[in-house]
């Protein structure tokens, strides 16, 4: 009888050990599947600690993270409503702001060209010349319908001229897609953070509320109140 009990205990130990092993292996595969891509050409202003996002005021503590897709109509609306205030927070050094360009919309393109990547790359190229905010605004102001072909490399170069981006370096960066792979790094970090819609905005790690139609994304008073509650004003 004692031998039977010992055998049962041994069997249970083996089964438990196998379960632990399977969970560990599964966890490793999930980790590597979601692990952010980092070894790619990227604009100088990125922070790998912040998921390879484009960072303003990295020395500050209070942090705003903006996950966006340049072809996303809701992102354009958020930018039109709140961009001026966000820019003010950047210029006046009231907050660390991290932009995470994503490519959800362009990934569904039917014309074989991911226009979200083209736009994100152009914004990154502008960042290298200190013109990200200007290019960011212009891209949204000139947003067309999703995957319509409007966001071509030639169109981005033309928008760059409006932001006084006239250098051959900028134009080559856009034409050659220097930072196309960097957009994958941003997307892989979004997966780690379970960001699955755009825009998604977090303030010191807390996501803005979408509870009502008149929420912190599309009501500037509520947006600024959310920042103020986090000490950003």
Describe the structure.
The chain is α+β, with helices and mostly antiparallel strands and 233 residues long. Helix 2 (73-91) packs antiparallel against helix 4 (132-141), helix 3 (115-127) runs antiparallel to helix 4 and helix 3 packs parallel to helix 5 (153-162). A six-stranded mixed sheet has the order 1-2-4-3-5-6. It has helices spanning 2-34, 73-91, 115-127, 132-141, 153-162, 168-176, 180-192, 220-229; strands at 46-47, 53-56, 63-68, 96-101, 200-203, 206-207.
Outline the fold blueprint.
Blueprint: H1 2-34, E1 46-47, E2 53-56, E3 63-68, H2 73-91, E4 96-101, H3 115-127, H4 132-141, H5 153-162, H6 168-176, H7 180-192, E5 200-203, E6 206-207, H8 220-229
Parallel strand pairs: 3-4
Antiparallel strand pairs: 1-2, 2-4, 3-5, 5-6
Helix pairs in contact: 2-4, 3-4, 3-5, 3-6, 5-6
Structural descriptors:
alpha+beta; 233 residues; Glutaredoxin; 6 strands; 2 domains; six-stranded mixed sheet
Instruction: Please tally the helical runs, counting DSSP H or I stretches of 4 or more residues.
Output: 8
What proportion of the residues form beta strands (DSSP E)?
Answer: 5-15%
**Could you say what the CATH topology of the largest domain is called?**
Glutaredoxin
Helix content: 40-55%
Structural class from helices and strands? alpha+beta
The CATH homologous superfamily of the largest domain is called: Glutaredoxin
Quick synopsis:
With 233 residues, the protein is of the alpha+beta class. Helices cover 50% and strands 10% of the residues.
